[in-house]
Amino acid sequence: MLNPFELIPIVNNVPCKIESIEIWQNNIYLGTNDGQILLYVIEKVENNKKVTFKSRMEKRKALGYGKKPVEKLLLIADIGKLLTLCDGNLDVYNMYNLDGPNTQNGISVNKGVITFCSKKKSQEFKICVVTKRKLTFYEFIGVFDMYKEIVLPEVALTVEWCKTSLCVGSRKEYAIVNVDSGLYKSLLELDKNAPGPRTKLILDQEKFLLTTVDVSVMVDLQGDIVAGSIIWDSNPMSMSYLEPYLITILQNRCINIHDMKNQRLIQELNNNSNTSGKGSSTSSGISFQQTFEGRGNGKDFIVLYSSSPNSVYCLHVGNIDDLVHQLINRGEHEEAIRLFEIFFKRERAELEDSYDPEKEKRIHQQRLCKIYELVAMSEFYRFKFSSAFKYLQLSKLDHRAIISFFPTYMPYQTNYRSPFDQSDIFKSIKDNAISNAPNTIELKDVDSLIDDSKSQLTLYLEQYINNNSGNSSSSSSSSSSSSSSSSSSSSSSSSSSSSSSSSSSSSSSSSGGGGNSSSGTSAIIGGVGSYSEEFKDLTTVLLKLYSESNKISKLISLLAKCRINGNNVINNQFYIQDVEEWLNNKQLYKQLGLVYQYTEKYRKALLLWNRLSLGELSDHFNCNGIEESIQLLECKQNQDLLPEPNKELVWEFTPFLIKITQEKQQQKKQKKQINNNNQKEEKEDDDNDEDDSIKQLPMKIFLKKRKDQFIIDDVIEFLTPFGDYYYQMYLEYLIYQEENRIDYLHTKLATSYIEQIFKNSPELQSSQGRTDIPIANSDRQKLIDLLEFSNCYNASTLLHRVRHSLLYEELVILYLRIGQYEMMFNIIVWKLNNFKKAEYICESFDPHFSLSITNVVSTQTTINPPTTTTTTTTTTSSTSNSPNSLSPNMMGTSPSTNLRNSVRLSHNTINNNIQISSSPIQGFNLINNNNNNNIYLTNNNLNDSNLPKSTLYDPKRQELFLCLLRTYLNYKEQSLKSNVKNQLTNSLIKDSNGEPIIPRYIIEFLNHYYEEMDPIKVLALLPNSIPINLLEGYLSNSFNYSISQQRESKIVKNLQKSLNLSTKSEYMMVCSASVYIGPDRRCAVCSKPISDRVFVYFPNGTIVHPKCFQIPFICPISARNFKMNPVEYPQSI
Question: What's the farthest any 2 CA atoms get from each other in the chain?
């Protein structure tokens, strides 16, 4: 048990039997069995931490009721009154000299009083007097004045009063009475044959304790039963309460002490055993009668009296620090903290005269931090690291003190000396495991404890770093005086034994002001020296922890925080040499390279990682250093914090990185060839893509913007010796992502693609003797993507290289770019045999945009550059309307648009079943094919659809359709030349002699596109021998369209004329309004004449002075808002 109290005699050999007792300051009032009040003065004596009391009788007072016992005493110290109950009489005496009773005290009840009580937790001086079945309430206003009476159903034997609730106990039951309303509420029925009821107010919890013979239950002030009860071995005879303890004298004369927070028995005193006090003991003859709480010697006091002998004792609370240490040693940490808070508050309440709130707050904080420190060390030695570090955070202990138990992480350059006996906690864990179970030790449990200690230490230091890193720069400009370590003033000591050793060996002074508990705070307050030293120590330890656990992101973040920029000087707030040596010993070369990087030792970092790549060093986490070197050279991390590595480092180390990645790629391919010999081709293609990702790594150095930009030609010259792959990738980055428009770069990339295609597929260089159509592979698709995406290359140069090849798709794009439409249509119709594609090009052409088809915008399929990870989406801008103009500028709008003015012209893109439909999006027509792919066509003239056309047929679109018609009509020559069989040759219309006249497909083409071509120009192209009946449908549709368009144009023209006249009429009406200012015209606001002064006119006819209005568009008279409610026509006045 805890044993917080010791029993000490106060008054010995009282001449009479004691019946009641009260205490205040150094005075004890005893009510005797012969009708007297004895006043004793006591004096507390402390000698060698042993407490004794001296007493003397100061005064004796007979109450005048014969030999009747004094049943109850009640002190109201604030008004200096002592209330006595003797033989049913309630009297009031002067508590200082026992003068009285005062017959003018105001209490009207002088006979038949059963008991009485005062109101607790109140600034009012009120008492309740119980007489049989009635409660009478008095308030002291110079005298006791009765203000209320309440009738009870039963005779009350005991009563307690708190706030507006009165708990009464009778022979029959316990009940709650509301003093304000008089409401009576029964709570607990009692056995009438049992001893009288006893109730006790638990003041701090505002609860009543209702006691029967064998149990006590708790109710709140409303009478509701709450959690908490006490089971009694014997009938309780008397109770007193000293927060948080309930002291009870039982019928067997034992004294039980319970903690009322959890109703747990913590101490028991009986007649047959020594007390738990220091050197005091009870003799077997003592029979305690009653216990009472009061204010004695300036503090709360518990006194008891006995009948044989007639003596008074006190239950003296022992040293609070000893009690707290006992609880900590038992692992009851929250109880220790709670007990300290209670007794500290009570202890400081004694200092009413010399009370300084700031000083008391500081003392409280110091002592509480000391307790937190003791609790933390107790948990630490029990290997409960989570709770240990939680209390360490509260203790304000210098963080380096706990790190002394982790000597492997403590920097050797520190000047800090720990107040504790240094020991390695890892060794303690292992030794404890071996000593407890030498034959059954599980290394897994030991490792988990060690890992737990590291993780908790990491969290502990992280919280400190995060809270204080922001203040490090400001502290550097504060006071320059360094504070000494608080360990010099510490009286604490700690044992370094295993979990069985306790932190109770740490001693704390009674004031609680010393020790290590404030060292963390003093280190920060003390100035630059101690603050920066502590910060450097802790960041050094945390860097080691992050490195050992391979937490790279946190390591980088901490390295960035350690760089404090003051007066343009970078100071790394950790011990660089210590960290470097530690990482070297642990073979953590990746982390060591990062430390070099963040201390701007780029060359050392790169050389270290190169050695890892070559296998000269072995990293603990099997890092090869390649990615780290690339990230350093590309400035991927904290580029705003770290300066860029110079270009010389890039030229020096990139060749090695390219070479080593190529070797890694080759090794990976060889392994996959061994393991995947039976894999399908698709799987091999996927593997090749994965291998390419390895090759791409060094290119990240050049594919990112730098403050000191690379010269493009220098990079291309540098990358060329390493093969086409690298400089192609660089050119793709410049074109697709950087939106570079330099023509020779586009031409160079396209030329490189062409050479790569011919190198990998030599059979594509010549089309002689070939009638097949080769399918575009990945190499060709990259070239097609570039040709469709860009218009900055030299199309003639590229055309010269591929003119006689089998790259038909590429030739179509190039001929379109240079405006050679007949050559383009010849390839589409006679080589690719794709009529719908040719017609689609003509149909999607926008004459207001360009004579190319790059205005076609694909929203479903976006062209991805083959070696880049992002999709470039641009919108072309309009260029010259000349037939010879190239496609629009490559990147004419912001990159935020998701539409790309490009379409693939390959045979896989244009389906043979394309249908034109209207689109709800302004400026585009929607093309739907049978694959449900949506392609948007720009149509810039939709907004001008209401305007009359300058010509019936657009000359540019007409030129394109006529060119396609000429290609179709050339079927005879092409069929003889190449013996091609297609829709033209297979659909010939013949005359009666069997001679071919014209392909039926051409007639269908004319019937479908009659709106696009002038029939006169069409007839001029058609052969003279064609029968007119074949053209009947075409000519009929064409003439109807022509007549309809002419009529529509006339209607639009007349409507425009009407609109013009209406606009002129409105203009004239607005201009016809006039304002006349006569001599009698006055301001509508101030009523002063306008005369020849400047005036303001509102559209509703209001005239005011310039100073008579506030808002220009709001009339000051009618408050009309002309922006929200404009006037149709101004009024003339």
Answer: 162
